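Section 5.1 Outputs to date
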Amino acid sequence: MATKLAVRNDKESHHSANEIHGSEAVSKTLTQGVTDLLDLRMQVKQAHWNIAGSSFFGVHKLLDKLAEELDATIDTTAERQRSLGFITHGTARHVAKNSSLKQLAAETQAIPEVVNHLVDLYLTVGEATKEGIRLADEEEDPGTSDMLVDCLRMLDQHRYLLQSYLMQSE
């Protein structure tokens, strides 16, 4: 669902922020990336607010930290989309309609179940990010590829932190 901005008229003497500088395929990948990252962030916060169990405090604080780091990555991804000349879609309605992530039942509170669900989400977004890196490389877009590598690094670290919790609770 890439939305192009107006392309600069050749008669204009200045560069416009609305010029297209990237491929539609990369834009589509970034649009889905922002959508899924926003959904992931919302599900992390949902878990943060509703988990219950003996290790509540530590997991509660961890999830808050992960949500903060996701905010920064979402912002960077959305701004990359704009720098390529495409509109970024990030409304709750867009996310609800277009996210590829599975939703955890709102009433789920048990920490191990919630953390397992989040690990699955991180794996899903990580795999899509790897595909985005391959596409950006094919499209000769090193800026997007590099940004997505940073995103993947963050996703892998978050997944590792969550999986480490599961190891201690087994």
